[in-house]
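From the shared-data thread, chain only:
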Amino acid sequence: MKFEVKSQTKSGVQTPWSSKAREHELTMAIPPEFEGPGSGFSPEDLYAMALVNCFLATFKVVAQKSKLEFSTLDASGILTLDNGPDGKLWMAKIEISVSLSGAADTQKAARLLQKASEICMILNSTKTEKVFNFQVV
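Structure, as tokens:
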């Protein structure tokens, strides 16, 4: 499997640019934390979104294959950037808070949330520390 993305920009940290995947286009911008305008998604936003949404997608697949119906799955992530051991700035940690509601079997739901956190391919492809907070209601 291969996934193609395309981006194009002009000079200057204040200049937003466009990035496209499939036929969906996003406005990208350097965030204010790095002296940009913050007028679009930053690479840091997309990184955090990829981690959180890969978890959601993985859980949806695992739940369906395990015949677990649920009403709502809410997830939020907080990405922390820090200097690594080599002094370079990196994506050090993501804290993902997950709330699952409407599952008839809450113990099964809790097991499947844990399973999804362990088999998500994007989460498994990063060195970023992952911390999960699961709540089944």
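Strands lie at 5-8, 17-21, 24-28, 72-83, 89-101, 129-136.
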